[in-house]
Design brief:
Blueprint (H helix, E strand, L loop, with lengths): L5 H18 L2 H8 L7 H9 L18 H13 L6 H15 L2 H12 L5 E5 L14 E5 L2 E12 L6 E8 L2 E8 L4 E5 L9 E14 L4 H36 L1 E2 L2 E2 L4 H30 L4 H27 L9 H11 L7 H14 L1
Helix pairs in contact: 1-4, 4-7, 4-8, 5-6, 5-7, 7-8, 7-9, 8-9, 9-10, 9-11
């Protein structure tokens, strides 16, 4: 349950939105894409100063005690500007995993560092909490003195090339385990080619990398972490869906043909109306899932599955139609609509496909 009042929540969101509008415009997005990290590091630092990186971390560990609804509102704003920061992996999934399963000394150290923006955490391997699972990884863990060592290779590790820690999941005989590995010379990273120019996926090769074993992992705890990660990613897609819709509507109002704004043509009005339904559905679903998680609702999993496929599909549809409605100009990377389309495509497999979540949702409805 969030410890943030409605008034403070709205103030945080408004302040963050104003900052992004001023300092996270398209030029900043493109300049960030050209860097090794894929985003402007100043944005990450500003989020830390505003307390947003610790929004889901308890106050006892340097955070501000927010809940899933607070995370969702932040991610909506992030999605609107396509800012590819490692918020979900670091501040949601890793923070939750550490808070639930790490030793107390590790909690105190790493959660405070996450909240202040001092460290970035990637996720990889197998397990429900991993955004882009690599079920074919070769990771193995063994006891090494007082600790553990992890060796092997794993792909699809988001932000793995510059992360300070890697949260790696292993799934052996149906039992999930997780290890925190500090980036060092025992971890080599190779960047993978992706369709989204802002996406940073890496293949890691570990050689007896020193690791912290997150003990006491259980199915319910992992499920809670996974649901919060899914809900956060969906909220980001909902924000991006609204942004590309608004960009397209502005184009329809200002682009003239035959002496008329093209938005006045009947065909365009119908397309716009259909897209508005997609936008509002995505926003409503994302907020409903976050509220269900904060309330500890017994049917929260149903809402999370619903928001997962709703937001994925809405973003894909809105970004595709935006290109059609802009015409030939949006088919080039020079137009921002192209970047939204690439992000929508890159997000389809994150935390599972639309079809997987739709199937889970239908099963939950049948079981009710």
């Amino acid at each position: 349950m969030s410890q943030i009042s409605d008034e403070d929540r709205q103030a945080l969101r408004d302040g963050f939105a104003r900052y992004l509008e001023a300092d996270a415009h398209e030029e900043k997005l493109r300049s960030g894409i050209a860097t090794d990290r894929g985003y402007d590091d100043a944005i990450w630092n500003q989020m830390a100063e505003m307390g947003l990186l610790g929004i889901a971390i308890p106050e006892d560990f340097g955070g501000i005690g927010g809940g899933a609804i607070d995370v969702a509102l932040v991610m909506e704003e992030v999605g609107k500007k396509l800012v590819p920061v490692p918020f979900v992996s670091t501040c949601v999934v890793a923070a939750e995993m550490i808070a639930r399963f790490a030793p107390d000394s590790v909690k105190q150290d790493l959660l405070e560092k996450i909240a202040t923006g001092e460290i970035v955490v990637s996720t990889g391997g197998s397990g429900d909490f991993v955004a882009l699972a690599d079920d074919g990884h070769s990771l193995t863990a063994k006891s090494a003195g007082d600790g553990w060592a992890v060796s092997g290779e794993v792909s699809f590790v988001s932000h793995g090339g510059h992360a300070d820690y890697h949260l790696l999941g292993l799934n052996e005989d149906g039992a999930q385990s997780a290890f925190l590995v500090k980036s060092s010379d025992t971890v080599a990273a190779k960047r993978l080619t992706t369709n989204d120019p802002a996406q940073r996926l890496f293949k890691l090769k570990l050689t007896d990398a020193e690791a912290i074993n997150l003990k006491g992992i259980n199915a319910d705890g992992i499920n809670q972490v996974a649901m919060r990660g899914i809900a956060a990613a969906a909220a980001e897609q909902a924000g991006a869906t609204r942004a590309i819709f608004e960009i397209t509507m502005e184009y329809l109002r200002t682009r003239y043909q035959f002496g008329r704004a093209i938005g006045s043509f009947q065909a365009m009005k119908h397309m716009a109306a259909d897209l508005l339904v997609e936008v509002e559905s995505a926003t409503s679903a994302a907020l409903a899932a976050a509220k269900a998680l904060d309330a500890g609702a017994p049917n929260a999993a149903k809402f999370v599955s619903l928001t997962a496929f709703t937001c994925k599909d809405a973003f894909r549809e809105a970004s595709a139609q935006a290109i059609q409605m802009h015409g030939g100009i949006a088919y080039t990377e020079e137009h921002v609509a192209h970047l939204y389309w690439r992000r929508a495509r890159a997000g389809l497999p994150v935390f599972g496909s639309s079809d997987e979540h739709r199937e889970q949702y239908l099963k939950s409805r049948e079981a009710a």
